[in-house]
Amino acid sequence: MTTILVIEDTKDIREMMIMSLKMHDYDVISASNGSDGVYAAEEHQPDLIICDIMLPIFSGYEVFKRLHASNILPETPFIFATALDRREDIEYGRLMGADDYIVKPFAIADFIKTVQDVLTRREIVRSVDSSKDDTHIFVSYSHADSSQMRSLRDKLREANFIVWTDEQIEPGDEWELVLARMISKSTCVLCLLSENAAQSKWVGREIAYAEHSGTRILPVLVHGEERDSIPLRLINHQFIDMRTQYNTAFERLCAVLNQHLANSL
């Protein structure tokens, strides 16, 4: 049975979440503050964590950081819950690397659908063959940065790299399954970072797919300030800065990619 940890300090909301999840045959454990939530996650190793942001003792952000440091994340999917009038929470949570968001107040049907979607995405990752095609690079990007992606993709192809993007997914294909397969079979995921990408749910999912399939991630900062463009889950990754001196940065990028490809042989 799938076990879900609910960390929520408001009793009525917590009990409503627990009841709704149990009605859909999930096993549920709960905590009413951030400290107990961290302990419960470490003790029970749940299959999913749903966490309020405004919590006693530790905030939801602190819970996320502590579980990330203890390696429970990103192995366990994580959903933030936030109030409707705090949209900045969603933006910051996305920058941190949460799998999804529940906005309060919410309809039970929407709540359960979000839970099911996150669990389904995780099962997709676990189901795909993660054997690598040693020369393939996948580019993750926000569609708002499509022009930067195509320019860099074409330049990499001219340099004889084999580059995949989501533009190669045919209409009618099972999008998430094909995407997970492409990332899992790639040697490296080239993640184009910007303020757009930091707020993109799809970029966050693609990073998670790469982490779970053991695919190397190479962040490339294409525009924006570092503090607003680099998700917490990539903060310790060395990144290529392509905001200035583009040709020099591109040469460095090619050198790093060649090293990754050579190490995979």
Q: State the helical fraction.
A: 40-55%
Low-confidence stretches: none
- Largest sheet, strands/sense/barrel: 5 strands, parallel
Order of strands in the sheet with the most strands? 2-1-3-4-5
- The structural class is alpha/beta
How much of the polypeptide forms β-strand, as a percent range?
15-25%
Mean pLDDT: 87
Overall strand count: 10
Would you give an account of this structure?
- This protein has 265 residues and is an alpha/beta fold.
- The protein has eleven helices and ten strands.
- The longest helix has 20 residues, at 108-127.
- The model has no long low-confidence stretch (mean pLDDT 87).
List the SSEs and their pairings.
Blueprint: E1 3-7, H1 11-23, E2 27-31, H2 34-44, E3 48-52, H3 60-69, E4 78-83, H4 87-96, E5 100-104, H5 108-127, E6 136-140, H6 146-158, E7 162-164, H7 175-185, E8 188-193, H8 195-198, H9 201-213, E9 216-221, H10 226-229, E10 240-241, H11 246-264
Parallel strand pairs: 1-2, 1-3, 3-4, 4-5, 6-7, 6-8, 8-9, 9-10
Helix pairs in contact: 2-3, 7-9
